Amino acid sequence: MNEIEKKKISKFLSLILRHQPESIGLILDENGWADVEELRTKSAKKRVHFSLEELDEVVETNNKKRFAFNDDKTKIRASQGHSIEIDLALVAQQPPDFLYHGTAESNISSILDKGIEKRTRQHVHLSADKETATKVGMRHGKPVILTIRTGKMHNDGLSFYLSANGVWLTDFVDAQYISK
């Protein structure tokens, strides 16, 4: 499978597994899992065809590890980034002292005033390294990397979760914990 086909399938899976499963008549369970065969069948009805081997290749080679299979590869889900209500069954964990948030320069004044909100997503996404945060910020414009004092947030009683693909998640980052 070439890179263009992989990207097309990956974008389609992101849409379906994170935001609009109903657009193909797919129902996710409470933890966001979809039956692989049902996903394949309902995707094909929307003219998006992929074999089990191709789906496996998309999951295994996605550089952001956006998707995960269950142990026997009969179910698949998005690792994080949902705008629909699901329970990823994540366990609260102690974060490193500092994490990073990449955003566009145009968002800085609002963030420094109001903090970082999850908006339509289930969580605020934070990166363990500046390189990843820069890539995230570049998707939205000229990137600015914010340093988040997550150790202090955790000590103040706020919860953090680590997704299957290494993205740190929390509900809100108050401006007092943010520095440029």
From TrEMBL:
Top-rank lineage group of the source organism: Bacteria
Any Pfam family matching the protein: PTS_2-RNA
GO molecular-function term, one example from the UniProt record: NAD+ poly-ADP-ribosyltransferase activity
GO process terms (BP): tRNA splicing, via endonucleolytic cleavage and ligation
Enzyme class at the top of the EC tree: transferase
Annotated SUPFAM superfamilies: ADP-ribosylation
Function description: Removes the 2'-phosphate from RNA via an intermediate in which the phosphate is ADP-ribosylated by NAD followed by a presumed transesterification to release the RNA and generate ADP-ribose 1''-2''-cyclic phosphate (APPR>P). May function as an ADP-ribosylase.
Entry protein name: Probable RNA 2'-phosphotransferase
Organism expressing this protein natively: Chryseobacterium phosphatilyticum
Gene of this entry: kptA
